[in-house]
Amino acid sequence: MASAGPKIGVIICSARTPRACPQIANFIIETIKPASLPTPSNLQPPSLTVIDLQEWNLPMFNESAVPSQIHSYTEYDHAHTQSWSREIQRYDAFIFVTPQYNWGYPAVVKNAIDYLFHEWKGKAAMIVSYGGHGGGKANAQLKQVLQGVRMRPIEKTIGLAFPTKELLVKASSGGDLELVSGSGTWSAQGGSIIEAYKELLEAVSADVVSL
């Protein structure tokens, strides 16, 4: 009997209202779900779960202890941190979908990362950024932060650039971007997205098989 497949959390790294991040996260999911990628024969296919930082609405970091010194969720001061810890512990790897604001990533994702340490440590991560020019600066900065909590970001990153000013304005106002996998905006990026996802799966599958 095959063991449970890897659990992958897709983190929506924007808490703005309105926002485009949920649409873009869904586009990523719909692009990679149909992909026929090899997995070890003793594992079921991976599962993808959305983690929306707007819904979590974590306050600014307010724990009394340094997260790297905490080894059980019961040691955290606050119920919201304990819940966040248990949520992140569930996953084997993550896909971070982030906009770029003023040459950086949103504060909400840095805050969410800073709450924890061991829950992130050792887990593989894929970064998808988006913006007027693809969000490359946010992508690179977020990769450094993930390495700081001892995560293992994959080498391949994805940067989605809005092809027109009109689409950028629509995104900033929360309009429908019509991101239909295979035919809409960024459809040409599908192959690159799948290649990055394949690299993520190879990293996490190796971890699961070695357990």
Give an overview of the whole structure.
By secondary structure, the chain is α/β, with parallel strands linked by helices. The chain has a single domain (7-210), classed as Flavodoxin domain (Rossmann fold, 3-Layer(aba) Sandwich). The chain is built from seven helices and six strands, in the order E-H-E-H-H-E-H-E-H-E-E-H-H. It has helices at 21-32, 53-56, 79-89, 107-114, 136-148, 165-172, 190-210; strands at residues 7-12, 47-52, 93-99, 124-131, 152-153, 158-161. Strands 1, 2, 3, 4, 5 and 6 form a six-stranded parallel sheet that branches. Helix 1 links the parallel strand 1 and strand 2 (47-52). The longest helix has 21 residues, at 190-210. The protein is globular, with a radius of gyration of 17 Å. The two termini are 16 Å apart. The model has no long low-confidence stretch (mean pLDDT 92).
Low-confidence stretches: none
CATH homologous superfamily title: Flavodoxin domain
CATH fold-level topology: Rossmann fold
| Quantity of strands, as a count | 6
CATH architecture: 3-Layer(aba) Sandwich
The largest sheet is: 6 strands, parallel
Summarize the helix and strand pattern as letters.
EHEHHEHEHEEHH
Total number of helical segments?
7
| Amount of beta strand | 15-25%
Can you identify the CATH class?
Alpha Beta
Please compute the radius of gyration using only Cα atoms.
Answer: 17 Å
What share of the residues lie within helices?
Answer: 25-40%
| Approximate shape | globular
- What is the typical, i.e. mean, pLDDT? 92
How far apart, in Å, are the first and last alpha carbons? 16 Å
Q: How many domains is the backbone divided into?
A: 1
InterPro entries: Flavoprotein-like_sf, FMN_Rdtase-like_dom, NAD(P)H-dep_reductase
GO molecular function: FMN binding; oxidoreductase activity
Pfam family, one: FMN_red
Protein name: NADPH-dependent FMN reductase-like domain-containing protein
